[in-house]
Amino acid sequence: MKNKLLFIFSGIGILLGCAAAVLFAIEKPAQPPLFHPASNPYSTGIYAEGIVESQQASGSNISVYPEVPGTVKKIFVAEGQPVHAGQTLLLIDDSVQRATTEQQQSQAEAAHALLEELQAQPRQENLEIAIAQVKAAKASLKTTTDELAKQQAAYKEDPRAVSTDALDAASNAALVARANLDVAQRQYELTKAGAWSYDIRNQERQYEALHKASLSSGALLEKYALHAPADATVLSVNTTPGSYISPQGSYDMYTEGALPVLVLGTPQMRLHVRCYIDEILLSRLPAPANMKAQMTIRGTDTKIPLRFERIQPFVSPKIELSNQRQERVDVRVLPVIFSFAKSQGMNLYPGELVDVYLAN
């Protein structure tokens, strides 16, 4: 009985094995590819990696950095938003600098007020006091002179009528009164002349220095607001309100490096492609007048003809695509810039990597 069951199960196993072998031997047709990988459209061509950028007359996208450090108070724009030249993009907390500017403005105003006071001299009230002092001194001189004349006349008539001490006292009083009149007249001339020219020039310099310090402080205060340098589109905002930024940029916790606070680009109707040609291929690079190129968007079958714009005539290490400044690089590349029109509905953005072929 047991041997019979063993033969039955063995036969079933053999049948299943044969069926499986037949099934696995059947070749299934391959699935069609989702897209065709980039291929050289020219009989001979140079391959290069490219990165999409905004259309710029020179350079690449606009990286916005603050000129002063501080805490972000408010952000006025969003990514993808078009902005106009001079539009405020971001505001840094300026409370300390604003207080400093107001203080220096007040100091400059105080110095200017003192300068105006010196220039307005003599003050009429001071002049009237000086005139009154001259009149009083003249009256005092007349009184003492008259008294001296009386004493001298009496002494002349009868030397015993006036003592020598009284006569000397009257003479001295007249001399003092004359000296007081001279002092009063000189004080009047000094008051009438107004402020000393040296004092005015010194105060003018004081006011000029404080005024320039105030202007400098006000100019620095304006740096706490970042403005768009040109009509552009906001490509990226790399900070948030409450974050600290500096002239080195905004700290990025993922790359552990500094990023531009904002990145601006031109409107997305026409874009640039910056290609990096390996230095060993430069001898095969055609003349600018004969430059033809085509790019392929990665992950798609889309192929776009490119128009030559310019060559950046400076060979540099190939670190632009990764932006890792610490990496060891042995390959050097030459940037070549092309442009193309972005069609309606095309999902292509600055910063995207593309495959480029150049005819040679």
Description:
The chain is α+β, with helices and mostly antiparallel strands and 360 residues long. It has four domains: 32-55 and 267-360, Efflux pump adaptor protein, beta barrel domain (Elongation Factor Tu (Ef-tu), domain 3), CATH 2.40.30.170; 61-93 and 224-265, RNA polymerase II/Efflux pump adaptor protein, barrel-sandwich hybrid domain (OB fold (Dihydrolipoamide Acetyltransferase, E2P), Beta Barrel), CATH 2.40.50.100; 95-116 and 204-222; 122-194, Helix Hairpins, CATH 1.10.287. Helices cover 39% and strands 25% of the residues. The chain is built from five helices and 17 strands. The strands form three sheets. A six-stranded antiparallel barrel has the order 1-12-16-14-13-17. It has a six-stranded antiparallel β-sheet with strand order 6-5-3-8-9-10, with no helix packed on it. Helix 2 (95-120) packs antiparallel against helix 5 and helix 3 runs antiparallel to helix 4 (164-193). The longest helix is centred in the middle third of the chain and has 34 residues, at 124-157. It is rod-shaped, with a radius of gyration of 47 Å. It starts with a helix and ends with a strand. The mean pLDDT is 87.
